[in-house]
Amino acid sequence: MSHTAHIPSHRKPRRSAPKTALRAGVAGGVLSTIAVAGAAGPAQAEPVARTIEMPTITDGLSTAVAASAQATEQVAQDLRTQAQQDEAAASAAKAAKKAKAEAVRKAEAKKKAEAAAKAKAEAALRASRTQARTTLSAPTGGSPASTAVATSSSSSSSSSSSSATGSAASVVSFVKAQVGDAYVSGGTGPNSWDCSGLVQAAFRTVGVDLPRISQAQSTVGTQVSLSNLQPGDILYWGGAGSAYHVAVYVGGGEFVGAQNSSTGVVQRSLSYDPPSGAVRVL
Known about the structure:
alpha+beta; 6-stranded antiparallel sheet; two-stranded parallel sheet; rod-shaped
């Protein structure tokens, strides 16, 4: 007996032919099915319906929307308030402009009225002084017009008989030499004068130092009647101490004075602008 007779064989047992054929046929069928399916193309998938749930509005989003609406309303309110303020400011500016124009108009009207009243008062004052002088010097009877002419003639005759001499002649000569010069308020020469500046300069030539202004010049020396004037006398318009104009009597019923910016220094008859009074310094 062989020494290997009892050792099991390590070879795998051979399968039977029927089982092998069956397994080959199943495998081939499966492979054929797969091949056919691949050739036929992919199968159409059935549509799938899915429901998507939308998120709900949260409390935070509601609060934000409310805040935005409130902010929009506040902006609208601010715009309305600003519009009202602008309209009020425009109305106030318009009212102020109208009030200013009215105030200017009233001021101009007042100024004109005051100027007219002053001119009227000055005219009335001159008329009353002329009348007073006429009454004092006129003979009884006769009309005011004839009396005034008689008074003027009498004064002129009386004055004409008096000729300037000495210092008075120098004063008269000086003021006559300035006729034609310009009138300038505050002017003291040598080519422009105001009324009191001319009178002061004239008397300074003979060593007499007069005050600078008309009011003071109307009170120096001795008050004299207008019917007894002499060359060199100072004539004044207005009251003594409150005169608003002065000039120098040069004889022959005439005076020289710096009248105004329109006429300058002129020589005029007393009847051109009858003075209120006179003072004698020389």
